[in-house]
Write a structure and sequence with these properties.
The complex is a heterodimer.
Chain A (H helix, E strand, L loop, with lengths): L17 E9 L6 H10 L14 E8 L2 E9 L10 H5 L4 E7 L3 H17 L5 E7 L11 H10 L3 E4 L8 H11 L5 H19 L1
Parallel strand pairs in A: 1-3, 1-4, 4-5, 5-6
Antiparallel strand pairs in A: 2-3
Chain B lengths: L11 H4 L18 H9 L14 H22 L2 H9 L5 H34 L2 H12 L3 H16 L2 H21 L5 H26 L3 H18 L1 H25 L5 H4 L8 H16 L6 H22 L5 H15 L4 H11 L12 H10 L3 H6 L4 H11 L7 H9 L7 H19 L9 H8 L18 H17 L7 H34 L5 H11 L16 H13 L1 H6 L5 H16 L4 H25 L12 H18 L2 H4 L1 H6 L6 H12 L4 H20 L3 H10 L5 H10 L1 H8 L5 H9 L1 H11 L3 H11 L10 H21 L1
Helix pairs in contact in B: 7-10, 8-9, 9-10, 9-19, 11-16, 13-14, 13-15, 14-15, 14-16, 14-21, 15-21, 17-20, 24-28, 28-29, 29-34, 29-35, 29-41, 33-36, 33-40, 34-35, 36-40, 37-40, 38-39, 39-41
The chains are: A alpha/beta, B mainly alpha.
Organism (chain B): Petrolisthes manimaculis
Pfam family, one (chain B): DUF5601
GO biological process, one term (chain B): vesicle-mediated transport
Chain lengths: ~200, ~850
């Protein structure tokens, strides 16, 4: 079933599996979430660009060895006032990128709260990546690389400093996520069915 | 209380009346049959009359009573008896709540009661034979709506392209399902229906999957089949399903609608969305998005609803992108909230619930363990971990819906999110936009002052309608109200024109300057015109003729009627020639008499006017009129010789003309003066003028004396020079005066007509001849004459009457008269205007 909505890749993936993942972008507004994803989707890495209108919802396909990973990227509103709506977005997401701005300490603090929230409330197996964006503005840096690095390690996050402007590490971070994502989906469904059945019988009895 | 558990299997023995009378009992009647129940309830009140007919109204009334008691029982079992009394006391204050509660309970009751009856009837069915089973399908087919037909048609067509086995099996499954659904859904809760529907989807998927392997269906085909199935099913069952959904969400729908209404003051600036609403295009797109959101309600299949939502969202994204680069979610969500606020879509919650419940699960892989789900599951002691790892599948949806039946999970915010956000809608573009819509709704529902950047106090005041945000009429205000927009645009334009803002003083200055120059031009124009008129006047001094004529007039009262113009007798043929020329090309005739200085003066006038100031049409007309008059006067000299002109009409009447001459001469002597003279001159002037005199004579009485002299004043002067040329005939001068008649031609004709009629009767015979004459004599003018004869005949008559002896003189060309009159009228008017 997992392949149903998968990208129609004419080649490249070959007989390999096609996995589709939902990825959520979180982070304070104006840290560059959208530009990051735009760079990823429209940069040199992309092969199939399926939606060019806006950056709110984009898909991008990545080739990994024998599998094709299709990212469904959900952008979220970063403003504080919409924070409470975020669960609706990251529910069911297999991956999340929490973005902060290295020139703004506040955004890093915000990113930490996002990570905490994700770890607590999102699906347990969610792959979380921390991205320190605007790495091209290193001279205005307010968040040290080491600081973020340690934090990421403590929380077992993927971490990279990126720059949507120079495309630094943009593709890499998505690729790293793709690698880390579990590819064995088909088991999941049968597992589901089993649970449903047991539950149903339980209910009727 | 076997009745409270709807799902329990009920033994037939339980269905029977408790008293054991052998009839079936009814839960509404405490398990009694109607008769026993009535007996039982009526027993304590023996005063009540016996009800012989258990079927009609009374029973219906009774239904209410039992429900009441039953509810009481339930509530008693749930809480205390005291609660009953308390509710009774607070009944007045909580009337509405009670009403709602009651309504809901009745709904439940009905559902249950009907359900049980339904089950009962099923149990009985075999005994009734096949008749009952046969009813349903026919009823169903009768109910097919237009939409159902169209989707059914589409579905069929698609199926026919597939393998026969596939078609048959799918049709069979759908039919079976529909039949079942139609029977049961009406009495089920939304969740139950949803469960069944989702199960059916899964079954269909499996069936199709098997077909995929056996009949080589491609994935695309399978997907299409599934979506068609979904659309077909939901369209067919729409009425039932949406009714259930509506009933369940009615309060929420109303609540959000009111909420949105009270939030009408929220502008895009509050929401922090980057919509540039001053842009025409963006506004149009917003309007379309809003229409889309509202339209969502009119679609039947969930996928169609989603499609509309999707396209509307994409439009919105486009609009956002137009205002500032590619749009991100930072802009999108606020904009969507804004649109929802503006649109206030009907039945919002119902639609969302409908989509979540009955949309075909996209079966894309998506994690099931969301935040709310986790919360829900926690309460039930299940292991979330298992769900969390779970991926994909419509079964998840089914599972969750099952789960949702646990009442403890259906309350509060979590319940809201749960029901509104089915995980199956968590992927795909449609899923994304749907999530956004849900977010927008959720945001609207709990929006507070803080989230809008206002203090709570402000927020409260805005919400209660006591205040309005101050921004609306600002420069960049973002109101979608068309009227306000237009008003603001106009204000801006005004600002620009008046130059109020930005210190743009130049524009008003130039404007004022322009106005000044324009008024100056107007002044100069007036001056020049005045001076020209003066020049003309000075060149053609006034003669004192008019006063003289007045005296004469007194002497000769009858004269006015006489068309002395008879003078023309002398040479009819020649006059004819001149006449024609005059009519065709007045300039020629004018040029003929070089003596007349008027012409030159005319030319001068023209030149001067042209050079001095732009010629207004009025002036030109006036000049033309003048020149024409002058021509006429010019002609006179020649005319005098050939006064016979009028005879132009016919040679036959030459004899008459001679007679006329006599008359004329006599007239001349007598007329010589005043207006009376006028007629004569007219006669003197070629044939053309003849008619005029005739008219003028008649007119004279009607004419105001005051006006006469003033106007005529110019001409007498003009004519003076001719006087000698013309042979010193004073008649000539009179002609001009006549021509000056200030009265508009129309009035002249009317006056003439009235008086003449008597004459008409007398000399009716002659009148017809007029047209003929004109036609013969002046072929060029014939057309004119013909047209105008109709108007003019009257004037001729009077002349005839007056002339008496002459009788015939009048046939002269009426067109010429008319022309003269017209010209004169124009001139007078233009001069009046100018001066």
């Amino acid at each position: 079933m997992a392949q149903r909505g998968g990208a129609q890749r004419p080649s490249g993936g070959g007989q390999g599996k096609i996995c589709q993942f939902k990825l959520v972008l979180l982070g304070e507004s104006a840290v560059g979430k959208s530009s990051l994803v735009l760079r990823f989707v429209k940069g040199q890495f992309h092969e199939y660009q399926e939606s060019t209108i806006g950056a709110a919802f984009l898909t991008q396909t990545v080739c990994l060895d024998d599998t094709t990973v299709k990212f469904e990227i959900w952008d979220t509103a970063g403003q504080e006032r919409y924070h409470s709506l975020a669960p609706m977005y990251y529910r069911g997401a297999q991956a999340a990128i929490v973005v902060y701005d290295i020139t703004n300490q506040d955004t890093f603090g915000r990113a930490k709260t996002w990570v905490k929230e994700l770890q607590r409330q999102a699906s347990p197996n969610i792959v979380i990546a921390l991205a320190g964006n605007k790495a091209d503005l290193a001279n205005k840096r307010m968040v040290e690389y080491e600081e973020a690095q340690t934090y990421a390690e403590e929380n077992s996050l993927l971490f990279m400093e990126t720059s949507a402007k120079t495309a630094m590490n943009v593709n890499d971070i998505f690729l790293a996520i793709a690698k880390k994502l579990p590819k064995s989906d088909n088991n999941a469904r049968s597992c589901w069915m089993l649970q449903v059945i047991t539950f149903k019988t339980g209910e009727t009895m | 209380m076997a009745w409270t558990g709807t799902r329990l299997h009920i033994d037939e023995s339980e269905l029977l009346c408790r008293t054991g009378c052998g009839f079936y009992g009814n839960p509404a009647w405490d398990g009694h049959c109607s008769k026993c129940y009535k007996d039982r309830t009526l027993a304590p009140a023996p005063a009540a009359p016996q009800q012989p007919s258990p079927t009609q109204q009374p029973t219906r009334k009774a239904v209410f009573h039992p429900t009441q008691t039953l509810r009481n029982k339930v509530s008693r079992s749930v809480s205390d008896v005291s609660e009953l009394t308390s509710t009774a006391t607070s009944l007045m204050s909580r009337k509405f709540d009670r009403f709602e509660e009651k309504r809901r309970q009745q709904l439940d009751k009905r559902t249950k009661a009907v359900k049980s009856m339904f089950r009962k009837s099923q149990a009985r069915e075999p005994s009734r034979g096949g008749s009952g089973s046969g009813d349903h399908p026919t009823r169903v087919s009768q109910q097919l709506s237009l939409e159902s037909h169209s989707i059914g048609h589409e579905f069929n067509q698609y199926l026919q392209k597939l393998h026969k086995d596939v078609e048959v099996s799918i049709i069979k499954h759908i039919k079976v399902f529909l039949e079942k659904a139609q029977k049961t859904f009406e009495f089920q809760s939304v969740e139950e229906s949803a469960e069944i529907v989702l199960q059916f989807y899964t079954n269909m998927e499996d069936i199709i999957a098997t077909h995929c392997s056996t009949h080589g269906l491609t994935e695309d085909e399978a997907q299409r089949l599934m979506s068609l199935t979904e659309r077909y099913i939901t369209t067919r069952l729409y009425k039932t399903l949406i009714a259930a959904v509506n009933a369940a969400n009615e309060e929420k729908d109303l609540a959000i609608q009111n909420r949105i209404r009270s939030l009408a003051w929220v502008g895009s600036e509050h929401l922090d969305c980057g919509l540039n609403e001053t842009d025409e295009e963006v506004r149009d797109t917003l309007d379309r998005v809003i229409t889309g959101l509202i339209e969502m309600n009119s679609q039947r299949a969930p996928s169609d609803k989603l499609e509309i939502l999707e396209s509307a969202s994409l439009m919105l994204l486009g609009a956002l992108g137009a205002s500032s680069g590619p749009a991100s979610a930072d802009d999108f969500l606020p904009a969507l909230i804004y649109c929802v606020l503006r649109a206030n879509p009907p039945l919002l919650h119902s639609n969302i619930a409908y989509i979540t419940n009955f949309a075909q699960q996209p079966s894309l892989q998506s994690g099931q363990a969301g935040y709310f789900f986790t919360n829900l599951v926690r309460g039930c002691g299940s292991s979330e971990g298992g769900w969390g790892t779970g991926l994909g599948g419509g079964l998840g949806g089914a599972y969750i819906t099952n789960f949702a039946q646990q009442p403890s999970l259906q309350s509060g915010q979590a319940g809201y999110f749960f029901t509104n956000l089915q995980p199956s809608l968590q992927s795909g573009q449609a899923g994304y936009f749907f999530t956004n819509l849900c977010c927008a709704v959720a945001y609207i529902e709990k929006v507070s002052g803080e989230s809008l950047g206002l203090t709570e106090d402000q927020f409260d005041r805005y919400m209660s309608g006591r205040c309005l945000p101050p921004t609306p009429l600002d420069d960049d205000s973002v109101w979608l109200s068309q009227a306000l927009r237009v008003m603001q645009e106009n204000m801006n334009v005004l600002d620009q024109v008046v130059g109020g803002r930005g210190g743009r003083r130049r524009r008003p200055d130039t404007l004022h300057k322009d106005i000044d120059t324009l008024s100056e031009q107007m002044d100069t124009l007036k001056d020049t015109v005045c001076s020209e008129v003066d020049v003309v006047l000075s060149r053609t001094p006034l003669t004192i003729l008019p006063p003289r004529s007045a005296d004469l007039d007194d002497d000769m009262p009858p004269n006015p009627l006489l068309p002395p113009p008879l003078t023309p007798q002398t040479a009819g043929s020649t006059s004819d020639a001149t006449n024609t020329t005059v009519l065709e090309t007045p300039t020629d005739s004018s040029s003929k008499p070089p003596v007349a200085g008027d012409e030159e003066s005319n030319v001068d006038v023209r030149r001067s006017t042209q050079t001095s100031a732009p010629l207004s049409p009025d002036i030109i007309a006036a000049q033309e009129g003048l020149s024409f008059l002058q021509q006429l006067s010019d002609i006179e000299p020649g005319m005098t010789l050939l006064p016979v002109a009028e005879s132009a009409g016919g040679e036959k009447e030459e004899s008459h003309s001679q007679a006329r001459v006599d008359v004329n001469t006599s007239d001349h002597i007598g007329n010589m003066d005043s207006r009376i003279l006028v007629p004569k001159p007219a006669s003197n002037i070629s044939g053309i003028l003849n008619p005029t005199p005739a008219k003028s004579t008649t007119n004279f009485p009607g004419l105001s004396e005051s006006s006469m002299p003033t106007k005529s004043s110019h001409f007498p002067g003009e004519l003076d020079p001719f006087g000698p040329l013309a042979g010193g005939d004073k008649t000539t001068t009179t002609t001009t005066t006549s021509s000056h008649n200030p009265l508009p031609p129309a009035s002249v004709t009317t006056t003439t007509t009235t008086t003449p009629y008597s004459g008409f009767t007398v000399q009716g015979g002659k009148i017809p001849s007029i047209p003929c004459d004109a036609g013969q004599v002046l072929p060029t003018t014939t057309t004119l004459t013909h047209q105008q004869q109709h108007q003019l005949p009257p004037p001729l008559v009077p002349t005839a009457a007056t002339s008496v002896t002459m009788g015939r003189e009048q046939h002269d060309e009426p067109d010429a008269i008319d022309k003269v009159y017209n010209v004169l009228g124009d001139i007078v008017q233009t001069f009046d205007n100018l001066l």
